[in-house]
Specification:
- This protein is mainly alpha-helical.
- The chain has a domain of 246 residues.
- Helix content is 65%, strand content 2%.
- It is built from 13 helices and 4 strands.
- Strand 2 and strand 3 form a beta hairpin.
- Helix 2 packs across helix 11, helix 7 packs antiparallel against helix 9 and helix 10 packs parallel to helix 13.
- The longest helix is centred in the middle third of the chain and has 27 residues.
Length: 381
């Protein structure tokens, strides 16, 4: 524009409404159909096949299958939590097994108190405490006899640990491989701590031999199916909540941090609060998964905190497809389904298969299974 030339404002309507783009729906019509179908399978079809169909029928869903699928659904919640922090925020954690185990230990403490006088030593104290000649419960067992307090601890303990660790790590701008190594070191240190008998967590044996939950027998088909349905509903609920979170303004900022954190800072956003929030939410989701896992499997011990378990969570997300939400869930089912079969048929080759799978996906399928399906269908990954 030439110097001194004025802009003609007579043809500009300053009161004209600006048409903003419509917000994306939470799920498409086909997505809602698939979601409702999954909900019906979890809440109606699976219980009917297990409890109502005769055992000799080809349609009978065995107790083993119920326990296996329930366990994998707990793993799928962890994979979904990993996708929020890794796929959408770009932060690779190798310590999510710690948060999973903390939630499991919180539930395990309650289940141990539910044993009551039915233990081997007929004492109000857990059997391992009687064996170690403990006279009273440690202070951190104070609220373990309350189910409501246990529910709060399941999310509060992993969330608090994640918040404190994440605050100092993100405030120090630790990122990349350094952050991954620190999270793995944190998990390994916690595993060594829980192995010690004097911590009051059962040492290397952990917690087992559970009898009841809410004063109801835990080893019954109806209770097993109740836990199965509760796990499936929780997984579907977390999936829906994760989609809502990612499609919100908060989720768009997370993806911007993943792609160009420095530019986000130049735009006036502080990445610390966003990263710390999603990191804490992800940890609490793993805590809930651990709490659902323990009564179905019947044991919790420090091996759940091993670095290999945390690495497996990342593998599930990578195999299924990062930043897709549904991909990590599929990855958890694919990898753990293969693990269940291979550890029986070829136990000595399982770890080689897992390593080869991770390397192959990293080199040839960076978008995972979901990306491959989209590519075959001609869609953009």
């Amino acid at each position: 524009m030439a110097p001194g030339k004025e802009i003609d404002m007579s043809n500009i309507d300053v009161n004209q409404d600006i048409q903003l783009p419509r917000p994306r729906p939470l799920l498409t019509r086909s997505g809602w159909s698939a979601y409702i179908a999954a909900l019906l399978v979890v809440c109606a079809l699976a219980p009917a096949l297990n409890l109502l169909v005769p055992h000799d029928s080809v349609f009978y869903l065995s107790d083993y299958a119920v326990a296996l699928i329930g366990k994998i659904m707990c793993y799928a919640i962890c994979a979904l939590a990993m996708d929020l922090i890794w796929g959408y925020t770009g932060i690779l954690s190798l310590g999510h097994g710690l948060f999973f185990a903390l939630g499991g230990y919180a539930m395990g403490m309650y289940l141990m108190r539910q044993i009551g006088l039915d233990g081997n030593y007929k004492s109000a104290l857990p059997d391992f405490m009687v064996f170690l000649d403990w006279k009273t419960l440690p202070w951190h067992w104070s609220f373990s006899d309350s189910f409501v307090a246990t529910l709060l601890l399941i999310v509060a303990v992993p969330g608090l640990v994640a918040f404190v660790f994440g605050y100092f790590a993100f405030r120090s701008r630790i990122k990349g491989v350094y952050f991954s190594i620190i999270t793995q070191a944190l998990t390994f240190a916690a595993m060594l701590l829980f192995f010690r008998n004097e911590t009051g967590f059962g040492g290397n044996n952990g917690f087992t031999d559970f009898k009841r939950i809410l004063n109801l027998p835990i080893a019954t088909p109806s209770m097993r199916m109740t836990l199965f349905v509760l796990t499936g509903v929780t997984l579907l609920g977390f999936y829906l909540g994760a989609r809502w979170l990612i499609q919100s303004k908060f989720g768009r900022v997370l993806q911007a941090i993943r792609d160009a954190e420095t530019r986000v800072m130049f735009c006036g956003y502080s990445p610390l609060g966003y990263k710390l929030t999603i990191w804490t939410i992800s940890a609490m989701m793993c805590g809930v998964a651990g709490a659902l896992y323990v009564p179905q499997v019947g044991i919790i011990n420090p091996s759940e905190m091993s670095p290999a378990n945390s690495i497996e969570i990342a593998i599930w997300a990578a195999v299924g497809g990062r930043a897709t939400l549904i991909g990590p869930i599929l990855g958890a089912f694919i990898v753990n389904g293969a693990k269940s079969w291979l550890t029986v048929a070829y136990p000595e080759f399982w770890l080689y298969f897992l390593g080869t799978l991770f390397i192959g996906v990293t080199l040839f399928l960076p978008q995972g299974v979901v990306g491959l399906v989209k590519k075959l269908r001609g869609a953009k990954p």
